[in-house]
Amino acid sequence: MIDEDTIVSIFLIVFFLFTFPLVIVGFVWLMRKWMKRHREKQAFQRVIQSGIRSIDQMDGHQFEFFLVQLFKELGYRSVKETKRSNDFGADLVMEKEKKIVVQAKRYGYKQRVGIQAIQQVFAAIPFYQAQEAWVVTNSFYTASACKLAQACGVHLLDRWRLQQFIVNVNPEMTAQKVYENVEPARRNCPLCGSPLVVRSHQENTRRFFGCSSFPNCRHTEPLNAS
């Protein structure tokens, strides 16, 4: 007959064999959940630190101004904006080991940059006698744009890569400072033709355009309106 101690030992062995895998599975599940939350927290911190939400509210001129300051702090030389009109496909020109033309696309978060931006900046290479072309956006690119850029050798910086650049540099001229202090490009009211002026909400720091003919004309629009 099997004595009592042997029965207890067998029971403990069986219990251990059945429960140990469950403990391991539970531990792995908890670790994955913790790592996911940690990555989400890091991603949220990068969003806050990069100021990407301020960039989302900028107009095109403010975005270009911000990129000039950012690339200067990244060590690029002779960083300058091109003319507002007839820019021949480039918004910025800069140099490091090579001369680079850059097209800046400040888009809505859900709006994708298409192949036209790739075509334009690629065409700017011979005009500015550059050796490289970039497109930088606060959004993302269509599949067609990515495919064309790869074929043409155009470098694409999307929302995530832009945030990485900003976080790594931690520029003195932050996106929030640019948004709050740099005047957007001038535009006229689409209703009455009067100049639009920059105003601020009383409840928050968000800026917007209002018609200078107020109260006769009450048209308003965000700075980042197309």
Automatic annotation (TrEMBL):
MF terms (GO), sorted A to Z: DNA binding; DNA topoisomerase activity; restriction endodeoxyribonuclease activity
Tree of life domain: Bacteria
GO biological process assignments: DNA restriction-modification system; DNA topological change
SUPFAM superfamilies cross-referenced by the UniProt entry: Restriction endonuclease-like, Zinc beta-ribbon
Domain Restriction endonuclease type IV Mrr: 55-165
Keywords: Membrane, Transmembrane, Transmembrane helix
Gene3D superfamilies with a match to the protein in the record: 3.40.1350.10, Bacterial Topoisomerase I, domain 1 (3.30.65.10)
Stored InterPro entries: Restrct_endonuc-II-like (IPR011335), Restrct_endonuc_IV_Mrr (IPR007560), Topo_IA_Znf (IPR013498), tRNA_endonuc-like_dom_sf (IPR011856), Type_IV_Methyl-Rstrct_Enzyme (IPR052906)
Location of the DNA topoisomerase type IA zn finger domain: 187-225
Bilayer-spanning residue ranges: 6-31
GO CC terms of this entry: chromosome
PANTHER family in the record: MRR RESTRICTION SYSTEM PROTEIN, SLL1429 PROTEIN
Protein name listed in UniProt: Restriction system protein
Source taxonomy: Bacteria, Bacillati, Bacillota, Bacilli, Bacillales
